[in-house]
């Protein structure tokens, strides 16, 4: 691959081709090649990044009322976050690519194109980190410069018009990749794989070749070279031919070392820990928990590390100040970790939540019906401070009912007697 290109062909490639080569691991970098696109050559990193980016992309983003918790329909914002970001990209593709870049390089960027009349966000323009330059000379006025590939035009934007994802940052301006801490672990894993490859490639050829007489260093090298040339092209298990001046003795391979290399899961567990992915998703043994428990723990305790920076960035860049006070942006994970419908119904029927809140918990939008804003209860339960009064009222009601029944019986008796008397008089 040519690393130096003439000016005449510069427009045919990325203007940031050197940065691309570094990020792809072709040229060495300060991080040892363990960050950027080159890190995806490690299968564990590829799997972990795919899991995280896939979850960020597949879970819908919703807007909720900060007071009632009901789902709000803000059409243009919701459309950008969940359906389509521009003529070329769906929201899923955009969120997936943004998440991948934010994990691998620490930062991901998209320019917000706003409606010239209303200033509302109309679409997103995605830019790779190699196409973006961040000028934070003045931290209060950060400037982003975007230079598309094969273009000499640079677009300059302020921070309010840029969606900037960063999951880990110590200066609040630029993000840092968690892969920076995994250099030793990934190097150890690659060394083990290389050792296994070397064993399977030429492990059966390791041997001792004894020659008669006292040999100089040059003579030993000559004999070894001649012997290897003689065996060139031989298949595994082919006979080895030596003359009477040599003695061939194959080396015994310590398979315990190979077993240690193949069973070493330290690097994989470290990668899972740094990227906040459950170890079982990387084919590692898990604690004595069910898959449902592990999945719920991942969604409730690990994914918020990625979700919260994204939702707060959406709130800051896509909502105005009045909307930020009213609405909150959230990822809806009820599909995999939400409450069951039966549990939601119990909460609603026992007066814990109102109808529209119940709909929000199972992923449905609010109806706006006034009756769906009322708390429900049943007549089988009362407040403790009303118990005595309720019991007294109940007993009093029973007593009155008994009295009324007695009076009714007396009236019936009197009437009957009158009738009898009347009958007797007539007789």
TrEMBL record:
InterPro entries: Phage/GTA_portal (IPR006944), Portal_HK97 (IPR006427). Residues 397-407, 416-427 have a biased composition (Polar residues). Residues 394-427 are annotated as: Disordered. Signal peptide: none annotated. Pfam families: Phage_portal. It comes from the Bacteria. NCBIfam families: portal_HK97. This is Phage-related portal protein. It comes from Loigolactobacillus bifermentans DSM 20003.
